[in-house]
Structures are given as structure tokens and as C-alpha cells.
Amino acid sequence: MKPFHIMAKPHGPICNLDCTYCYYLEKEKLYAGSGRDFRMHDDVLESYVRQYIQTYPLDTVQFAWQGGEPTLLGVPYFERVVTLQKKYADGKKIENALQTNGTLLDTQWGEFLARNQFLIGLSIDGPEELHDAYRVDKGGEPTFVRVMRGLDLLKKHGVEFNTLTVVNRKNSYGAHEVYRFLKQIGSRYLQFIPVVEQVAEDPDPNGLVLLKPHARQRTTVSDWSVEPLQFGRFLQQIFDTWVIQDVGGVFVQIFDVALESWYGVPQSLCVFKPECGRALAVEHNGDLYSCDHFVYPENRLGNIMERAIESLISSPQQARFGAAKAAALPSDCQKCDVRFACNGECPKHRFTQTTAGEYGLNYLCAGYKHFFHHIDPYMRFMTNELRNNGAPARVMEWARSRRGAAGSAAVTQHAYPGCPQ
């Protein structure tokens, strides 16, 4: 079996925060019969751990725990997770990653995470004003101070972490502030995740209002979604700083994946792969879905307590889902000069029209074109270094020499005349 990845939601969509842009909170409506018992029960948890380890085709098995907010389950729950992993490891190496908002972390959590070498993905959207614009609790109160307290706890116990920053309508205009802040708090592994949601005028039959492409309801783009070109400018502005001073010291996921594209190796991030279908999500009751961003009834593959994970991943339904990404590319994408780097990005974002009026163009197309055209010379330089046993970090010296005394803005305009502004 080809490698795959499952995002586990042991507490379903339940969270202690009420972030404005969260796409997952409303998934609670899909499980109205659960009441408030969204906990992945022990029989489901054990079956999941056992099957995942046995089905995973590599010697190192990477578990990912998300939500909602998984830390609501408490440390004893994850102690049980580790116990089960050891029980079924059968010689394989087990790694755990847990995504959290950080507000519930305490000394007990710090000791557990450090002892068991969990990698933490901490959600933080930038300095206080930008972070608190959308990331609030159930009472509408800001969360920045609590997140920073959680971060201090991770540092105190030596827990490895990276930062997950949702790029939205507001912080997209503060690229320099966001990047500077993330470096100041000690993040060396950065992920920038664009938020794009369609809001229905009326809920669908399941009560959902954040809908996927080809929804029959009338929708509008949410007012917290990042604007297409501004997303590209956000990435460009951070790249322009990174490429002259931080290559090899700060690792930005989308820059790393771009280099994979230019170098000609398979992209490690699903949204840029030619096909998808290898990144799934399992809910608290064992329901397995085609993708974390496609948790809709029609994308439910089955339940791991009724059918084996291997069977569900290999099902014709999932094969069709994965192949549709390439098959549904509109004509503008097929002839695009940066298709090799983008591949139409995530199907969840494909709901605008092409120049010829075709439905299915990615909402973020203008931003990605802007960004990929901008970084092309630098990616070519680093690729050349890799192919000649050089050091990609030499791009910093090369980039500084290109900019010279004229300043980055003037040189950028001269170097990329074909780049849409």
C-alpha cells in the first residue's frame, strides 16, 4: 500500500474556543446523536491504533491528533494512547504529533509531552492584536495571553513545537509583523494555512453552512477568508525576508514544498500533489472520511469498526476522490506555467470561474501565480545548488547581491516583469 496519513479527531469537533473562522466546529451537527459524548471510546481507540500501525506501510508510524481541541481529553487519555501504541508497535517506531490551541497546557501536560516526545503544532496567528481578531473563546474573550502561557510551558519542558498560522482577511496585511513575531517566540518551523470558506445563505440538510464546491445552495465567500492576491503578497513578503537572512535557520513549509516542486521530487504537502486521497480523517466514533476538509456525509467512506482501514482507503470511492483532483483541472490550470508547483491546490478551494467561464478554478489562483512567479529565480538557484552538491543557503548571498543598493522593491519590479502585481 502507498503511504497515507490519517488525522485523528478523538474528541470530534469539541473545542474550548470559538474561533470565528473555524471550519470544524459545525461538524458537531453531523453527530447530533452523540449528545456531548464526543470522546473516542476505548474500543474504537484501540482498534484505530492497532489498525493504523498494522496498515501503515513504513517502519516509522506517524500519528496525528487534532480536533476540536484534543487536550480537553486530559493527560490520562493520551497515556492510554501511548500504552496502546507500545502494545501494537511490533518493532515499528511510533511518532506522535498533536495540534492544540495551547490554552489548556499545564505542568502535567508539559511533563507528559516531553517524556513521550510529542511534536506539538501550536495554533497562533501572529502578535496579540492579529491573533485575537478571530481566535476567541466561547465567551468571545481573547486568547493570546493563554496561548503564550502554553507556549512558555512547552519551552520550559523542552517540548518540540512548530507553529500553525491561519492566514485570514486581517493578518494577511501584516506579513512582516507575523513573521517577525513567530521568529521572536522561537518558532523555527512555520506553517501558513490560508482560510477560505463558502458560507451558504441557508444551511444544507445537515445544518452545515460552510460548504464545499459544487454545493447546490447559494453561497458567498466569508468575510474572514483571505483575499486571493493578498495571500500571494503575504507569502511573497515573508519570502523576501526569509531568502536574504533565514534560509537553513527557519523552515517555512510552503517554501520547502516549492523547492520540492522545482527540484522535481514529489511534493510532501497534499494540497500541491497532482492527486489527493492519501490524507484522511477519522472521527471520534470511527467514521473515516476522504479528507479533513471534506467531512461531509457523502465523503464518509465507512466506519473502522465495521470495515478495515486498509479496505476503506483502497475503496473505489476513495480512488475516485483522489483522481478527481487532476481530472477536474480546468483549462486555465492545464496550460498554466506554474501548474507543476500548484496542481490546482486543494479541491476545497476550487469554486471560481476561469477566463472562459469554466467552474472549478481555485479561489486562490491569483495569489499562487503571484507567489510562484516571484520565487522562480530563487528556486532555480537553490535547485542548481542541490544538483551540484552545493548549499541551497548560498541563495541568501545571491539574493542580497541582486537587491543591492536599489532596495528590494525596485529590484523585484525589474526582475519579474511578467509577475502580476
State the main characteristics.
single chain, 421 residues, alpha/beta, 15 strands, globular, disordered C terminus
**N-to-C SSE string, H for helix and E for strand:** EHEHEHEHHEHEEEEHEHEEEHHHHEEHHH
Low-confidence stretches: 408-421
Give me the secondary-structure category. Answer: alpha/beta
Strand content: 15-25%
Mean pLDDT across the residues is: 94
**In what order do the strands lie side by side in the largest sheet?**
10-6-5-4-3-2-1-11-12-13
Work out the helicity level.
Answer: 25-40%
Number of helical stretches of at least 4 residues: 15
Rg over CA atoms, rounded to whole Å, is 22 Å
- The span between the termini is 44 Å
Extended strand count:
15
Largest sheet: 10 strands, mixed
User: Which shape, going by the Cα principal axes?
Assistant: globular
Outline of this structure?
The chain is an alpha/beta fold and 421 residues long.
Describe this structure in words.
The protein has 421 residues and is α/β, with parallel strands linked by helices. It has helices spanning 42-55, 75-88, 107-115, 128-131, 144-156, 175-184, 228-245, 253-263, 309-313, 316-327, 331-334, 339-342, 365-387, 395-403, 408-415; strands at 5-8, 60-65, 93-100, 119-123, 161-167, 189-194, 198-200, 210-211, 219-221, 251-252, 279-282, 287-289, 300-303, 350-353, 359-362. The strands form three sheets. A ten-stranded mixed sheet has the order 10-6-5-4-3-2-1-11-12-13. Strand 2 (60-65), helix 2 and strand 3 form a beta-alpha-beta unit. Helix 1 (42-55) crosses helix 2 (75-88) and helix 7 packs across helix 14. The chain is globular and about 60 Å long. The termini are far apart.
